[in-house]
Write a structure and sequence with these properties.
This protein has about 350 residues and is α/β, with parallel strands linked by helices. It has two domains: about 110 residues, Aspartate Aminotransferase, domain 1 (Alpha-Beta Complex), CATH 3.90.1150.10; about 240 residues, Type I PLP-dependent aspartate aminotransferase-like (Major domain) (Aspartate Aminotransferase, domain 2). α2 packs parallel to α9, α3 crosses α8 and α9 crosses α11. The longest helix is centred in the C-terminal third of the chain and has 35 residues. The chain is globular, with a radius of gyration of 21 Å. The two termini are about 20 Å apart.
Length: about 350
């Protein structure tokens, strides 16, 4: 069986610089417990350096460390919402928000991404979805699995809307380093936003291919008074849990450096697989590859001669290929198949060959 759903980089056949990664933890300072709610200063400075290398000026005082993006969401929902309040999340997108929100007694409402030769935010539908209990709008930039970035024209509408109504922006930017080619209209990060309270999320899981190290972060932006209040309250939440381990914080500068090698491998892998997908699924195929700007996934639109579930089961039972149906990601119509571009190259090629034959 060929698995075209692999999203775990540690199981994707990458060549990890093991000596550098393991050596990063040989630090005697890890034997001393020195709790800091926002994270150790040296670790936050390392994160600030990561942004500086990408042309983003982010002061360490605006950075708060967490154990993962999931924990970042949980803490932000605690910060921003009371039970019964709402957050707006994109559809389609990764099927995680409902679970995280439910655990904080927060309601999820969706706003649609629409596709016309490329994905975009339906700004009118988003504005219509806002209610008196809306506390935050979640952006996934680039989105998973559509691979679509937030554009400047979209941000020009969204930021004033949120500033006027006192709604926070949560921008999940874990895949932002995996763009397929440049585009001046894209917004790689919202860390510069000053008009509305904004929280940018990232971490080692994607940018260094190290999900097992359990370290993420939140970059806090917006008007100074709101930013300072949010920082103070987030530190109180963080001080209650103190979840980020000391060893990974001391190791962070070296892990970020070692992660550059892993990130290049992942970027090369997903780019190569996407190119092969386009070559294999020609213009005369009954399937269509939806436009993708970045990330680790590609989406095939297949004929509606059967349901997505039937497509997936048919490919599994008769062609020994495992893919994901679009309804896993809340696609609003059928029929879509989601493929992981992180899959090992030969496995991906063989799997695509079987899918094309099945089509």
């Amino acid at each position: 069986m060929l698995d075209l759903t692999e999203s775990n980089p540690t199981r994707a056949g990458l060549a990890y610089p093991s000596a550098e990664i393991l050596g990063a933890f040989a630090d005697a300072r890890s034997l001393v417990y020195e709790p800091r709610p926002a994270g150790l200063q040296a670790a936050r400075e390392a994160v600030a350096g990561h942004y500086a290398a990408r042309g983003q000026a982010v002061e360490p005082s605006r950075i708060l460390l967490t154990s993962s993006s999931s924990e970042s969401y949980a803490w932000l929902f605690k910060l921003l919402a009371d039970p019964g309040d709402e957050v707006l999340v994109p559809r389609p997108s990764y099927p995680l928000f409902e679970f995280l929100a439910q655990m904080e007694s927060v309601q999820v409402k969706h706003y649609p991404l629409i596709y016309h030769d490329g994905w975009s935010i339906d700004a009118e539908a988003l504005a219509a979805a806002i209610s008196g209990r809306t506390r935050a709008i979640v952006l996934v930039n680039p989105n998973n699995p559509t691979g679509s970035f937030v554009k400047r024209c979209e941000l020009d509408v969204l930021v004033p809307l949120c500033a006027e109504r006192g709604i926070a922006i949560i921008s999940d930017e874990v895949f932002t380093d995996y763009a397929f080619g440049p585009d001046p209209e894209r917004i790689p990060s919202l860390a510069h936003v000053g008009e509305a309270l904004t929280f940018c999320l990232s971490g080692l899981s994607k940018i260094a291919g190290l999900p097992q190290m359990k370290l993420g972060w939140i970059v806090i932006s917006g008007p100074a008074a709101q930013r300072n209040e949010a920082t103070e309250k987030l530190e109180l939440i963080a001080d209650t849990y103190l979840s980020v381990g000391t060893p990974v914080q001391h190791a962070l500068p070296k892990l970020l450096a070692a992660g550059e090698n892993v990130r290049r491998q992942i970027a090369d892998r997903v780019h190569e697989n996407l190119q092969h997908l386009h070559a294999a699924v020609g213009d005369h195929s009954p399937a269509q590859i939806l436009g993708v700007e970045g990330g680790w996934y590609a989406t095939l639109r297949v004929p509606r001669t059967q349901t997505e579930e039937e497509w997936c089961l048919d490919l599994l039972e008769h062609h020994d290929v495992l893919v994901q149906p679009g309804f896993f990601y809340d696609f609003e119509s059928e029929a879509y198949l989601v493929l992981s571009l992180l899959t090992e190259v030969q496995t991906f090629r063989d799997g695509i060959e079987r899918i094309v034959a099945g089509l």
